Amino acid sequence: MTGGAGAALALAIPFLAVPGIWLARRRPNVREAVTFLAAVSLCGLVMSLAPAVLCGERPAIDLFEMLPGLSVALKVEPLGWLFAAVASSLWVVSTFYSAGYLRGNDEGHQTRFFACFALSLGAAVGVAFAGNLLTLFLFYELLTLVTWPLVTHHGTEEAKRGGRVYLGLLVGTSVLFLLPAIVATWVIAGTLEFAADGILAGKLDASSAAVLLALFMFGIGKAALMPFHRWLPAAMVAPTPVSALLHAVAVVKAGAFCVIKVVVGVFGIETLAGLGGAAWLTAVAGFTLIAASVVALRADNLKRRLAYSTVSQLAYVTMAASLLTPLAVMGAALHLVAHAFGKITLFFAAGSIYTAAHKTAVSELDGIGRVMPWTMGAFAIGALSMIGLPPAAGFLSKWFILSGAMSAADWLAVAVLAVSTLLNAGYYLPIVFRAFFVAPGTPSAGVREAPLAMVASQVVTAGACVALFAFPGPVIGFARAVAGG
Amino acid sequence: MLLAHLPILIVVLPLVAAPLVVLVRHGGVGWAVALGVSAASTAMSVAVLAEVPGTGVLSYAIGSWEPPWGIEYRIDAGNALVALLVSAVATIVLPAAKRTVLLEVGADREYLFYALFLLCLCGLLGIALTGDAFNVFVFLEISSLATYALIALGRDRRALTAAYQYLLLGTIGATLYVIGVGLLYLVTGTLNFADMAQRLPAVVDRRPVIAGLAFITVGMGLKAAIFPLHAWLPNAYAHAPSAVSAFLAATATKVSLYVMMRVYYSVIGAPTAFGAEPTGAILMALSIAALLVGSGAAIVQRDLRLMLAFSSVGQIGYITLGISLASAAGMTAAMAHLINHGLTKGALFLLVAGVALRLGGTRFEQIAGLGRTMPITSFAIVIGGLSLIGVPGTAGFASKWALVVAAIGAGLWWVAAIVLASSLLALAYVWKFVEAAYLSAPPAGAPARGEAPADVTVPALVLTAAVVAFGLHATPVLEASSRAASAFLRGWP
User: Fold this and answer.
1) Cα–Cα distance for residue pair A306/A313, rounded to 1 Å
2) Angle A439-A460-A481 (CA atoms, 0-180°, nearest 5)?
3) Which member of B390, B393, B439 has the closest CB to residue A138?
4) How far apart are CA B185 and CA B191, in angstroms?
5) % of chain B surpassing 70 pLDDT
């Protein structure tokens, strides 16, 4: 099978799983087996593309012509491969976790849940392998629409409100800013196909480049750049597995991915640097980074704290991309991976705590580590990754982002990174401390570890955080290829 | 031999069939005849469209009286496409009409319904295909009179007021059009569009030409429901029999918009209509007002049918906006949206017909929980709604893309911004439906889970599938539209 067909098949697998999931709706074990099978085959297929991509091949395929001169086209390049690999491997893990969570909490509409989950993964793969901006936009919008039923899963008034904010901000920014940016690129460049050094070289002056970049960056609402970040905390009304895989991995990483892709593949870092750079973007991302951390510091609801932490961590990626140096772009790509594994671990732990102890607030977690040692142990590793401390993957990406900032002599970015590390420590370490070292206030009788499927999932992802730190070689290889090295 | 007579056969066939249906006085026969005639018209439209590739023009002199003395039917890539849309939608809507008409109109008047339907079809096709200004008026009246009666056959007595309202405004519109034609006749001495186009340059700065342009704009604007001349549309669409809503929403206003395009670009010519006279600026201002007011009003409706009707007022604004840009790109966008919106609205009104059939009404409290009671219909309505918003992968996206490209290409950034902002209004009304259908419980006493009968649902789903197919692969529609646009711009020398 040629690489291009492999990419098309990878895109098709999650969509093909949907009828299977629906047919098995009366038999939950078969249904989850279908999801698992789809996840494993998707993951295996993506992994099988790795050697070719690493050797410099770019498997590509034109699926069909959508608009005159513009096809829905797939092209696997290193960054897209990284994103697809992260999303598909974590889909495998989260299938177990979701099954445990939904059954443990007696959630309704489980078939709809798994079907929409598969559709979301399909859309994420479409974003990852998009060969041009139109294909990217198609799957970007699809991702918003198919995650909406997951956000409003509970159907309560609160879920409805959350769903409105979610849809309004994500579709609003994409229609008002991203779509005109894409049309303008089409009018100016005459092509929408990503290229290693951009497609806008010599076609823009400095001021219109700044406007176009702003349209793109605020248009990619999934990257949660302030002031368009509120959809992410609003999405926390969803069941925790949704927050874990979609709002810590697939959806937000689609945003971060698009940011890197636009800066590298549409503008080109050298072109953009020659046009006066993106200093304002560094500042906006830096502000988002710090401001979101400050909000997280004050949030007592655990999922809300994690959500604002995600806003802040996404801004790392945007800021790194805005530095326009190969090292920082490498850091951005690595952070896309590192944050995914760390944040999903944290959300898994939050969901386990909710399922086992029905607790949602940080202030209720005193001593919970004593009854749920595995959960809180995994949480601690995820937290270390967020702060950027060894032995977790977050250290690696921050190292490269920091090196990139220093090589660009951007001292503002360096200062932001330093302050944010302190803030991250400030809102993660107290949770770990409370869980293990503060005596429980009210004895919570009968609280035990979460179901096995959930505990196992979070141990696996926490282990992956450590493994990425210990054996960073392959991922760094891909990140270097992203930066064109 | 037969092929040479296709231009007139397309129009004459329904005209002859209508009185036959009245004579036979049988509903089932009437339905079968109407369906057969529509299918034949569709086939002939396809044949005619294939006859005029690129720059081709098909001229047919009625009764062999040579133009400009006789009436000429003149077909190019522009109006052949309009005729295809009209006849194809009629063919798809009619299978769904059988059951809804029997229920809403009654067995005793069923045959009259199909006779009127055929007359309406004949009128719309005649407007599209004729090359004669007065012949347009004749067919306009044929289609309008049939339409008034069709609307009056609606489910309840509100249909009578709606039909009466439309009758008054429609008659005024037709009268204004014929006054406009009279003024042009005054200075050119001809009624043949092509002949008129040749004679106009010599007299173009004379006041009757400008007055004629204004009269035709307002007259056709009334029939096309261009804001603020849209007052008749929402009630007419909401209270007409279901099948009529679906057919009219997809075709009737579109044909009037076609006449405007023809008069502006092929007869009077863009340099006069859009250069010397402020038609473009006026049309653009009205289009933008339509986008905002129509879509805004759709948000606050409490009935699904009315919501869709007001949405049409807004969506017509996209078409007229494309016309007002006075460029090939703008006209391509206008033609593409004319087709795409026709398909989308046809699909939506047919789906809603199925909802009304099962639930007895389409008020929002009645359709609560539709996602559970009628899952397939409900999902298809969501897809149609996404096309109204212009989500990629639906037909609505393709035409909106073309429109935004045209606006940005003309340097009109603010117009592109308004077009996109108005999509968010569409998002608001479509999501009002989504929340009602999926996040509300069905009302007490709602019927058990199940779809409307297949003869209503299947045609609706065929149109919905077309909306998705022409969204994912929009090239055929956009290329046909582009050919149509160049046919309009080239004019009829």
Assistant:
1) 10
2) 125
3) B393
4) 6
5) 99
